[in-house]
Design brief:
This protein is of the alpha/beta class. It has helices at about 20-25, 35-50, 65-70, 75-90, 95-100, 105-110, 115-120, 125-135, 150-160, 175-180, 180-195, 210-215, 215-235, 245-260, 275-285, 305-310, 315-320, 350-365, 375-385, 395-400, 405-410, and strands at about 165-170, 195-200, 240-245, 270-275, 295-300, 325-330, 370, 390. The two termini are about 30 Å apart. The mean pLDDT is about 95. The protein binds iron/sulfur cluster (SF4) (2 copies).
Amino acid sequence: MQERNVSPNNFEQCIKCTICTAYCPVVAVNPRYPGPKQAGPDGERLRLKNKYFYDENLKYCMNCKRCEVACPSGVKVADIIQSARRRFSREIPDLRDRLLASTDFMGRLARPVAPLANAVVSLGPVKGIMDVMMDIEKAKTFPKYQRKGFVHWFEKEARRSQGGYKKKIAFFHGCSTEFQHPEVGVAFVKVLNAVGYGVELIDEKCCGVAMIANGLWNAAKRHAEHNVRVFGEVVKAGMPVVAVSSTCAFTMRDEYPDVLEVDNSAVRDSVTLVEKFLFGLVDSGEVKLVFKDDYRARIAYHVPCHNEKLGWGIFTKALLGMIPGVSLTTLDSNCCGMAGTYGFKKENHAFSMEIGRPLFENIRSVAPDFVCCECETCKWQIEMCTGYQTLNPILVIAQALDFEATAASNK
Ligand code: SF4
Ligand code: SF4
């Protein structure tokens, strides 16, 4: 098991270089935000003396973790900030924050009336009312809910055939695959089956990332404890837990212990992302991917902030690079500005657009056929702000894969 030798609150390791502040996308656009050094290690010293040093402007941190990636001293800057929010904030999440945080509850509520719900929330006057009454930014468009989710497809089309595979993985599909993008889950199952792996669904709960962002700490902790318990049974049965969203994977590996103080040490290293898992299989020679001869695409790959923190963008790049007809451009390292639910909030909208601007300009200059990234909220922001279709890499792999030849090569 990989050792984690960094304490969640290691503010004393700070050497005051201010590199984190130079890399923070929020401090560059929002004068109210004190910045990672001041909000993190510097502020922590003061807060330890007296909790009244806590500054409510810490809520402007997007928890993108870019400061942690940049810090040469390994300070868990964003964890320190999130932990301070959890311990000291006196702000109580309002109705808007609760609704934005409850991704699975909202999905279950909207699903039976999905076409109507989608139509209503996209009407100009309704957006205007939500903007005025709830501070939900009217310029933003909500992703569309689907009438039938991924699990419905799986039970109907795939469940029975999974028993035919000796090797198995547990799939953490997440809320967006279930409620908005079931095609991502379908692609996942088809690709995994083609390389000889059966897929099992588990009793998962939302990873909790939106609850953390919106200050619903107790609910996030309950979700984390539930998932860790379920993963424990899965790992005992010899299966890894494989996700398609880099933010879900990151949250379940690192936010559970570092922000929510939920011990996941028994399962952490078994929680992975499909691109890392698949690359490992190909790299070790265990499986072979055979791609269509006639697949052609010019792809711009955006590494989401949480995948930069995981350091796993290399696996997606390597997999996409294996597709013979793909011309791949990796975009410059920039935050899209959405940060889950952050960009939907009226008070953050202008900052969100300004943060995302370099990424949007980079995409336009590359002018790809489509953009590719592992995070659903980056997808929403990029599609809204550039008009470029943005696909999860597993969808691209499924589009390009010769399923018959791949399955035959992995018998
Ligand atoms: S997590 Fe992101 S927004 Fe928050 S301080 Fe670090 S770099 Fe800035
Ligand atoms: S980058 Fe790290 S060491 Fe430098 S000021 Fe920020 S937290 Fe401190």
